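Lecture notes, continued. The same structure-token format from the folding unit now serves as the input rather than the output. Read the line below as a description of shape only.
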């Protein structure tokens, strides 16, 4: 299934986990649990040692993953080992993409990603103005390139992003770094309004924690919700307490179902267009 198709019929739930956190085997079970709970797309983090866009929760997940031996080559094996029937997006940093393989540039990484079944990329540290080579590689191998649009992204920079984006656009709900919050930022509606002229699915992330948050985001006009830190917290708490992997997987599946159901409720609350 393509990324756009995942948003076609109903609001998409897009969870994030760092691949290999806290171990390779446990992480496989956790990602598969999210798919059982209703994930429509899975953002899978390839850990990088300097994750500039991440708050402490995801930074800690990246450390656990790196300490457990995650590498780009291992990441591709992980994707091949996953038993899910939803699209997988690789979220990572451009240095890892650029340096992979025998020659510099994004081509070898993108080619390998396509071979293992990855559908697209989110690259937080890649400016849209410098994304041409990655966009070309994605076009060559049939993958999507997702950009993160911040509340402050406007004008020519926004145009440049939206000219190159495909699959969906990641709408950052608030300024700052990733992390679960107890409220939903009012800037979301304004950000969605700025993107209304572009015909690409809009998925809102940063700070979504509960089904009620997901409901509010979708009722405000989002085509989907992206949730990371609230799920990584469950992994971290299970790891720190020594909980059985099956128990943590069950909790992740339940949280995924809560978030997906919230998104579906939000779609029902949208104003319906008047019939003529």
């Amino acid at each position: 299934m393509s990324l756009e198709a995942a948003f076609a019929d109903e609001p998409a739930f897009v969870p994030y986990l760092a691949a290999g956190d806290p171990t390779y085997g446990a992480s496989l079970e956790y990602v598969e649990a999210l798919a059982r709970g209703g994930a429509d797309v899975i953002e899978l983090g390839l850990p990088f040692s300097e994750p500039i866009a991440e708050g402490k929760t995801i930074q800690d997940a990246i450390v656990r993953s790196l300490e457990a031996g995650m590498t780009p080559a291992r990441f591709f094996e992980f994707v091949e080992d996953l038993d899910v029937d939803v699209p997988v997006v690789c979220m990572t940093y451009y240095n890892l993409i650029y340096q992979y393989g025998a020659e510099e540039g994004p081509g070898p990484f993108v080619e390998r990603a396509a071979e293992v079944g990855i559908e697209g990329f989110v690259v937080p540290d890649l400016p849209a103005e410098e994304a041409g080579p990655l966009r070309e590689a994605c076009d060559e191998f049939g993958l999507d390139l997702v950009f993160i649009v911040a509340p402050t992204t406007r004008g020519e920079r926004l145009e440049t992003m939206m000219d190159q984006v495909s699959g969906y656009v990641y709408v950052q709900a608030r300024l700052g770094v990733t992390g679960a919050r107890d409220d939903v930022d009012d800037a979301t509606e304004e950000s969605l309004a700025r993107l209304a002229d572009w015909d690409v699915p809009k998925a809102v992330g940063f700070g979504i924690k509960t089904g009620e948050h997901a409901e509010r985001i979708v009722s405000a006009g989002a085509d989907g919700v992206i949730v990371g830190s609230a799920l990584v917290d469950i992994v971290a708490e299970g790891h720190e307490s020594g909980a059985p992997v099956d128990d943590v997987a069950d909790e992740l599946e339940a949280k995924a179902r809560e978030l997906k159901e919230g998104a579906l409720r939000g779609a029902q609350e949208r104003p319906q267009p008047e019939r003529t």
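Point for the exam: Confidence is low (pLDDT under 50) at residues 175-183.
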